[in-house]
Amino acid sequence: MSHLTTHVLDATTGTPAVNVVVSLARHLPGGAVEGVAQGFTDTDGRLALGPDALEPGMYAITFGTGAWFEGRGIRSFYPLVTVTFTVSDTDRHLHVPLLLSPFAYSTYRGS
Known about the structure:
mainly beta
C-alpha cells in the first residue's frame, strides 16, 4: 500500500517545523483536482497524511510555509510550497520531506 508521510525541518534553526498545515490533493483526468486530506505537523515536524492506500495517479502535497513563518514574525518568500508527484507503485511507502528556510526549500523522495 502507498502510505504518505512527511517531515518538515526548519533549516535555519535545525529544528522540526511544528504545526505546519499540510494538504494532499489528487489530480484527476481532465484537469480537476480533488482534496484528499489535510493536517498539521506534530512536535517532531512529522505527519502521516491521507488514506492507508493511495491509488495510482498524480498527487500534490502543499505546505503552508508562509503562514508558518508569519506566525514566528519572519518574512518569507514562498507562501506555499507544493510538491507534485506520481504514485505508480502502490506497494511502496511514500515519504516527502521538506527542508525549509524563509527564502529557499528543498525536497526529495525519502524512504
